[in-house]
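Batch 3, record 17
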Amino acid sequence: MDNFIFYSPTEFIFGKDTQKRTGETVRRFGGEKVLLVYGGRSAEESGLIKEITESLMKEDIEYSILKGIKPNPTDDRVYEGIAQAMREGSTFILAVGGGSVIDTAKAIALGAVYNGDFWDFFCGKEKPVAALPVGVVLTIPAAGSEGSGNSVITRLDGMHKLSVRTNVLRPRFAIMNPQLTMTLPWFQTACGAVDMLCHIFERYFSNTTAMLVNGYSEAIMRDIMARALELKVNPDDYEARADIMWAGTIAHNGLCGVGKEEDWATHRIEHEVSAIYDVAHGAGLACIAPAWLSFVAKRNPDMVWRFAINVMGVNPDGLTTEEIIEKGISSLKDFYHDLGLTTSLTELIGKTPDIDALVNSLETNMGKSLGFYVPLSMEDCREIYKSAL
Amino acid sequence: MDNFIFYSPTEFIFGKDTQKRTGETVRRFGGEKVLLVYGGRSAEESGLIKEITESLMKEDIEYSILKGIKPNPTDDRVYEGIAQAMREGSTFILAVGGGSVIDTAKAIALGAVYNGDFWDFFCGKEKPVAALPVGVVLTIPAAGSEGSGNSVITRLDGMHKLSVRTNVLRPRFAIMNPQLTMTLPWFQTACGAVDMLCHIFERYFSNTTAMLVNGYSEAIMRDIMARALELKVNPDDYEARADIMWAGTIAHNGLCGVGKEEDWATHRIEHEVSAIYDVAHGAGLACIAPAWLSFVAKRNPDMVWRFAINVMGVNPDGLTTEEIIEKGISSLKDFYHDLGLTTSLTELIGKTPDIDALVNSLETNMGKSLGFYVPLSMEDCREIYKSAL
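Prediction for the assembled complex:
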C-alpha cells in the first residue's frame, strides 16, 4: 500500500424524497445566489426543476438558470456559465443532473474565481486553488462526479476531452434519490453501470499490493453487475436502483484507489472516441475495456486472472491461467451484451473509426505513454483501438 | 436501504512517516494553540511525542500537554482537560494515541465550548452543536474514533460508560502511519482487530436489505481476520499493518452502516463489563459477541447464516441452517482463541462476574430494551451474560 490522502468531505443525503431538501441544504452550506445548471427537458417535464426552484425560493435563495447541458459537455457552455455566474454574482453552483451537468458546474466554479481561462486547469497549465462551492442533485448514477473532485470537459477547438482532479471541486453536498433514476432510459442506466465499473477497473488493475482494497472493490464490482442485470428486468426495483446509485459514488470518490497506483488508460483511450464521435462514454468503455484487458493480460496477467475468478466468477478448476483470463474477459463482454451494449467500436459509431485520428489526438492530449498497470505506447493504443473494432 | 446521510469529512493522511506532517497539518486546519492529549509512556519513549512537539514548534504553534490518559477513559480527565483548554485558550485539540485518547480529546472539545457539564451530551440531556476542532495522530487501530463522530467516556460516579455520536466531533484530520503500530503489544493488536470487526457486526446484523453494503462489509471483515492472523506470525508486516489500520477506520466511519438500521447491543452489553471490571473493550467483545450471536441466531437466523458462509467460510453443502450457524459461531470463537483471547468472561475477569450488577447498570444506562436485529429485554441480556461466562 502506497502512502495516500483520502479526503471525501461531501455530505451525501441519500434516499426517497431527498430532493425536497435542496433549498435548506444550499442554505446550510452558505449558498445565497445560485447558478442552477441542468440538462435537457426531462428534468423540467418530470417536475424536478420546479420542485427544486420552489425549494430554493422557500429559503429566499435567488437563482439564475443555465440549461441544456449535453452529454460530453463542451467548453462553450462553461464559458457561458462563467460569464453568467460573474454577471449575476453567483456564490454557489447547483448542478441537477448527471456527470455532464456536474462537470460543467465544476468547471464554471473554477473559472468564476479565476482571473484567466478556465482551460488552463484542464490542459495542466495551472493548478486549481479555489472554486465556488458546488452542490449536486444527482439524477444519473454513472460518472461519480457527485463525490469526486474530477471534471471532464471537451474543448470544441480540436475536440480535446481533458480532465482536472482537485479537492477544491469536491461537491459540498450530493442529494441522491434513487427514485429519480427509475425513469432513465435503459441505455443510460446501462452506460452508467459500465462507467462506474470502469472507475473501479482503473484503480483495481494496479501493481500495488492492496488486499483489503481489492477485496472490497471486488464486492462492489460484483454488486454493480448483479444489480444492473436485475434492473434490466425490473427497472422500478428501488433496492437495485439504490445500490447502483451508491456504488457509482464509492466507485469514484477515491475509496477504491487508496494507496494504489491508478491506471486510467482505458478512460483516456475512450475519451478520444466519445470526443470525436460524440457517443456515450459508457458505451465507448464497453468497447475499449475488454480490448484493453486482453492487451494487458498478455503482459501482466496477475490482476486480470484475479478479476476473472473473483469478479466474473470463473471457476479456475482444471483451467490454465490463459484460459481463466480468456473466460473472464469473454464473461465481461457477455455482461455488456446482456445490458444491450455492443463491444464493437464499428457497430457503436456506425462506421469504421479513423484510428489515425484517434491515436493522433490521444498523443496530442496525453503524450507518448499512458497507464501504469502496463504502460502503453501510442502503438499499443493503436493495437487496442484495432482490436476493439 | 433506508434513507441516510453519509458524511465523513476527515482528511486521512496515511502512510510511512506521515506523523512528521503533524505541525503543518494542524496549521492548515487553523490550529494555533493546541491542547496535546496522549496516553502512556510508550509514546514518549518511542520518540513520537518529541517528533510531534518539534513539528508543532516548527510551525510556531503553542501547545500544552494533558497526558496519562488510560484505557476505558474516565470523566475526571475530561474535566481536567476542559479546565486546561479554557485556561490556556486552546483553539485545537490534538490527540496522539488510540480510541481512549481520541475519545477524551473529543469530550474535551465538546466541553470547552459548552456552558455547562459536558456529561449532558453523554447522558442525552443536550444535543451537541459545537466543539473545538480535533486532529488525530493514530497509534492504535481499533476504535475507529479517528474517523467517527463518536466518543465513549466512563463516569467514575457509578461507573457508567456512555457514548455520544455527532458530526461536530468528526476529526478534521487523522494522520495514520502503520509503522507506528508495529511495536504495539500483541494483546492490543488482537483487541483492536476484535473491536473493528465488532463495529461492522453492529451494522451488518440488521433487518434492512443492503446487498451492496453487506457485500463490501463482508470483504472488510474477511480481510481483518486474515490480516490479524498474519500479524500474529509476523508483527512487522507493513502491508498487514496498513490493511488493519485502514480497515479500523472504514469499519466505523459510517461506510458499513449506510442505509441500515444498526444494532449496537453487543457494544452496550460489553461496555458494562469493561466499565465495571476495567478490562480491555476488545477482550470483552470477544466474550460477548459469540454469546450474542448464538442468542439472536435462534430468533432471527438469516444474517447469522449469511455471516457463517460469507465471512467465516463455512461450506454449507449438506448442512442444516442450524449446523451452518453453529459452525460459523464456533469458527469465530476459534479465531478469537487463535488471537490468544478468551471467550469466557470468568476467565477474562479472573472470577465470576456479578451478573446482577451488570444487568442493573445496563438497565440504568439503556432502559428496558436494546438492539434492533433482535430487540433484547434485560432478561435476554442476562441470558447473554450467563452464556458468556
